[in-house]
């Protein structure tokens, strides 16, 4: 982490918040990353961090089934919002890398970072891990280094996170908002998501 930490020191937010305590709501913004039909009856916003273990577990164990059932079928419009929880420097570098890879590869890179999260934390070399992910997404070493040193992009990321914290009252990850209703249990199971989507569609009850 030493290389990334040195690059981002003084630029990352001083806000470093724990998982599993959160409230808030939010409307879709122009700089959000999304997948699925924008005209879907249900919109799910997820505030997550690529350095949050809870987020990684949800992404790997639950999200694929949710995506196949609801996003790929046009029932849910999914909005991803970048949070700087966990290790803010790793989260920032990861999200900058994903955005630099391009919108068509954004979620591919985010997924790769989640899968490599344990490796980054265990070997103490997240810079090298992120570089390999960037290479797999078609970026050169120079492009990657320029990307994580982009002060304007980092400031924009920080500004978005500050807004989520102050205006949406997000203080942990993952946080889910489904058609305006906040689900503050952290990771959600597939049955809980089924119930939440049914409620949002008007044909079910909220998960208990």
Can you tag this structure with a few keywords?
9 helices; 208 residues; alpha+beta; Glutaredoxin
Written account of the structure:
With 208 residues, the protein is of the alpha+beta class. The protein has a single domain (2-201), classed as Glutaredoxin. Helix 4 packs antiparallel against helix 5 (106-123), helix 4 runs parallel beside helix 6 and helix 4 (88-101) packs across helix 7. The protein has helices spanning 2-8, 53-61, 63-71, 88-101, 106-123, 126-136, 141-148, 151-166, 190-201, and strands at 33-35, 42-48, 76-82, 175-178, 181-183. It is built from 9 helices and 5 strands.
Q: Overall mean pLDDT score?
A: 87
Report, as a whole number of angstroms, the end-to-end distance: 40 Å
Low-confidence parts, pLDDT < 50 over ≥5 residues?
Answer: 7-26
CATH fold naming: Glutaredoxin
- Strand order in space, largest sheet: 1-3-2-4-5
- The topology string of helices and strands comes to HEEHHEHHHHHEEH
What's the number of structural domains?
1
């Amino acid at each position: 982490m030493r290389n990334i930490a040195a690059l981002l020191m003084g630029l990352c937010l001083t806000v470093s918040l724990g998982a599993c305590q959160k409230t808030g709501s939010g409307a879709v913004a122009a700089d959000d990353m999304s997948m699925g039909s924008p005209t879907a009856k249900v919109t799910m916003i997820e505030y997550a961090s690529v350095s949050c273990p809870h987020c990684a577990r949800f992404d790997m164990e639950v999200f694929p089934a949710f995506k196949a059932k609801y996003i790929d079928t046009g029932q849910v419009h999914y909005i991803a919002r970048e949070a700087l929880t966990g290790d803010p420097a790793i989260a920032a570098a990861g999200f900058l890398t994903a955005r630099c890879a391009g919108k068509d590869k954004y979620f591919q890179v985010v997924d790769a970072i989640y899968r490599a999260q344990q490796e980054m934390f265990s070997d103490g070399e997240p810079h090298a891990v992120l570089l390999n992910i960037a290479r797999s997404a078609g970026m050169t070493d120079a492009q990657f280094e320029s990307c994580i040193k982009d002060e304007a992009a980092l400031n924009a990321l920080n500004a978005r996170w500050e807004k989520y914290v102050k205006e949406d009252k997000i203080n942990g990850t993952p946080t889910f908002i489904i058609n305006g209703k906040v689900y503050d249990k952290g990771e959600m199971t597939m049955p809980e998501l089924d119930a939440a989507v049914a409620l949002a569609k008007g044909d079910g009850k909220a998960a208990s």
